[in-house]
Amino acid sequence: MKYFLVILLCFLSVLTSAQVTFQKVLQFGSNSLVHRSYVKPATDGGYIILGSAENEFYLAKTDSLGNPIWERVVTVCNSWFCDSSYAYGVEQTMDGGLVVVGTNDDASGPGGNAVIYNLVFVYKFDSSGNTLWHKEYFNFSTPLSNYARSVTQDNQGSLIIGGVNVFNGVLIKVDSLGNTVWNRGYPGLGGIVSSALLPDGSLVSVGEKILSPGNRDIYLMKTDSAGVPLWSNTYGTSGDEIASSVAVLADGGFIIGGAIKPLGANYDAYLIRTDSLGNLMWSKQYGDTGIENGTAMPVADGGFIIAGSGNSFAGGVTKPLLIKVDSLGNTNWSEVYGDTITGSFDYVTPTQDGGYIAAGITNSFGNGIYLVKTDSLGNSGCLQAGTLLSDAPVGTNVTAVTVVESSFSMSLLPSNFPPPVNSGVVVALCPSCPSPLTPAITGGPIPFCPGDSILLTSSPATSYAWSDGQKTQSISISIAGSYTVTVADTSGCTTTSAPFVATMFPLSVPAISTNGSALTSTPAVGYQWYLNNLPIAGATSQTYTATADGIYHVTTLDTNGCSVTSAPFSFLLGTGDVFAQPLSLYPNPTKGTFKVKVPAAGTLTIKDVYGKLIARFDLEKGLNNLRMPLSSTPGIYFTSYYSVTGQKSAHTAFTYQ
Q1: Of 160, 246, 395, 571, which has the most beta carbons under 10 Å away?
Q2: One domain, residues 599 and 625
Q3: Alpha-carbon span 92 to 86, nearest angstrom
Q4: Same domain, 551 and 588
Q5: End-of-domain residue from the set 546, 571, 596
Q6: d(CA 528, CA 566)
Q7: How far is 45 from 40, CA to CA, in rounded Å?
Q8: What angle do CA 171, 174, 179 make, to 5 degrees?
Q9: List of residues 6+ apart from 15 with CB closer than 8 A
Q10: What is the DSSP letter of 554?
Q11: Which DSSP symbol is given to 386?
């Protein structure tokens, strides 16, 4: 008699932020350890859960709170020899149903032969979990080397299964009834572990290319809708790299998640970001002194969420791990989950409420699927701890690989899976936070002036996690926007506050106009004039009469009490006409030599910020090559140019490095 058990670790539905959080362990009565788990968002806001144990898998449909609506346990191998039969992927189909793919070690084999065979299986369910069909696929020429590792759905509702056949990558396309459409083999590339569909129907797939024992590179291959290779690249270092996932991004590029093991070091989580042609944009590793790995998914803010495991923590225990990074791979936050739980996360995905849901495995609280729902900052309600993992760029080498598809055939076989069974019970293990805190934010004054900062303070709690990443009870902010704080009480229950909207006075930048040597600011309450970034004593009126060449600006005080500074204004004394075109000086910054282009012959002077003359040059019309005096020190300098006919140019500022 099969059964499943849901252990409720902690659960909290936060009304103030509309982000649900919980932790659960789902046990389904397997006699073997859970090997891998998956979670996918369902179209109705709930979730699809897949757990794979030896020779059987657990499939469940839950609501948005993680409560099972229905569940199934399916035995996939029923012969005298069942060694490594596992489910490896789940997908919700266009008709609302589900498909599960995997590999079945069958000792009976086609025709009842008493030989061990590896078979690829596909199991199709309707939206209520009822079996519609199940089929197996087999390659007679290589009976021991047929494995499925992923499944995705194309635009017509067909399924594309990624896997391996004798160490070579394989794609199998079947229609919505499981009938084979085409098979492709890709010699020289290892098994396909993840694929993603592009809007035009083409496909990208990842896996590992084995170079030597302990030395693998990750490959990314793009194929057309018929599985014909378009291009393929490998990404690697002198160490070992492992692929776990690939996803298509909004700009047409790709994000690859996996692990990297530099020579003489442990594995770290690994991200590779490419453009639409597979060209490397950046790559980073995330870890510490222990072992980390991860899969990655894009999120709405342009960043990525990484799920995996790490043992860089107290006692070297392997714990489930989430890492949130920005669009350039810089870490926003990282958390480990489960308190005393030993395990890992296999998959993570963003949720409709802006949070994340991750699925993994654990042998704590019994053998089962570990399911964690967090808010946007990784808070799950209890049993977690922040961890500091380093992120570092990786010198990834990219190599173009020519892939020629091979002839490959998979035969469709009849299957005789036993019917799925289901039964179970829900047991609460942790408090459900019946009386959560109600945090409030105070602060101000608002609106505040541009360039100023204000203090925001949360009501008391045990810990604090602000929406901008700060972790103290009070924070200083200088940017207008909406701020929330998630607090935890002594039981670990978390609640998110209502938003505090910090507004800023409108920015009114003063402008400077001239009339002869008189410089005039737009109207304000108060004024302070500056020459070459130094305040001019007594220059506190709306108009100032310039007495020297240089770069002027004015800082004004408006009716809100805010001080705002104008843009720099270049000014030259004299009566000659100003050139219509500005002085051209490059490169800027310069390391000593530079070029100046002038419309007529004349004299160029260079002064420092204090108005001290540094150099004088006689220039010819056109392009002139110049060099700063060797005694010059790095800093900002200003040029003045007068032509032989008395014309002048505006000041040009440049930096000498």
Answers
A1: 246
A2: yes
A3: 19
A4: no
A5: 571
A6: 11
A7: 10
A8: 135
A9: none
A10: E
A11: E
Structure tokens, 525: 């309450």
Place of tokens 């791990």: 321
* Position 198 in a domain: no
The DSSP code for 625 is E
On whether the CB atoms of residues 651 and 639 are closer than 8 A, the answer is: yes
Q: Tokens standing for 408?
A: 């490959």
The SS3 call for residue 112 is helix
Which two three-digit tokens encode residue 480? 């207008």
Residue 496 contacts residue 476 (beta carbons within 8 Å):
no
Average pLDDT over residues 282-290: 78
Q: How far apart are CA 40 and CA 50, in angstroms?
A: 9
Q: Token pair for residue 267?
A: 């594995």
Q: Are residues 589 and 651 in the same domain?
A: yes
Residue 625 CB burial class (10 angstroms; 0-12, 13-18, ≥19): exposed
CATH of the domain at 637: 2.60.40.1930
Report the side by side order of strands in the sheet with 68-75.
34-41, 47-53, 56-62, 68-75
Tell whether the torsion through CA atoms of 161, 162, 164 and 169 is positive or negative: positive
Gap between the Cα atoms of 67 and 355, Å rounded: 17
Q: pTM score, two decimals? A: 0.64
Burial label, 110 (beta-carbon count in 10 A; 0-12, 13-18, 19+): middle
Short-list 96, 182, 102, CA closest to 148:
102
What single letter denotes the amino acid at residue 293? N
**CB within 8 Å of 543: residues ≥ 6 apart:** 518, 519, 520, 521
Q: Are 321 and 334 in contact (CB under 8 A)?
A: yes
The count of structural domains within the chain is: 3
Asked if 516 and 495 sit in the same domain, the reply is: no
The separation between CA 321 and the C-alpha centre of its own chain, rounded to angstroms, equals 15
Cis geometry, peptide bond prior to residue 110 (ω within 30 degrees of 0): no
d(CA 108, CA 471): 59
pLDDT tens sequence across 119-149: 788 889 999 888 888 888 776 555 556 778 8
Domain that holds residue 474: 448-502
Let me know if residue 471 belongs to a domain: yes
603-639 tens-digit pLDDT: 888 888 777 888 889 888 888 999 988 888 888 888 8
Chain position carrying tokens 């990750």: 218
519 and 474 belong to one structural domain: no
Overall size of the chain counted in residues: 657
366: tokens are 């019994």
- What are the φ/ψ torsions at residue 618 (nearest 5 degrees)? -95, 125
Closest C-alpha to 473, from 488, 458, 462, 484 = 458
Strands (E), 546-621: 550-557, 563-565, 569-571, 584-586, 593-598, 602-608, 613-619
The pair of structure tokens assigned to 192 is 């396909």
CA angle 299, 308, 82 (to 5 degrees): 120
Instruction: Using the predicted structure, report yes or no on whether residue 109 has a pLDDT greater than 80.
Output: no
pLDDT in tens, 317-375: 778 889 999 999 999 988 888 766 677 888 999 998 889 999 988 766 666 788 888 88
CA distance linking residue 645 with residue 647, whole number of Å = 6
Task: State how beta strands 593-598 and 622-627 pair.
Answer: antiparallel
The answer to whether residue 469 sits within a structural domain is yes
Pairing of strands 424-428, 4-14: parallel
> Is 114 within the bounds of a domain?
no
Beta strand pairing call for 518-521 and 254-261: unpaired
Residue closest to 642 by CA, chosen among 602, 614, 611, 583: 602
DSSP type of residue 31: S
Can you tell me which residue has the tokens 């009386």?
435
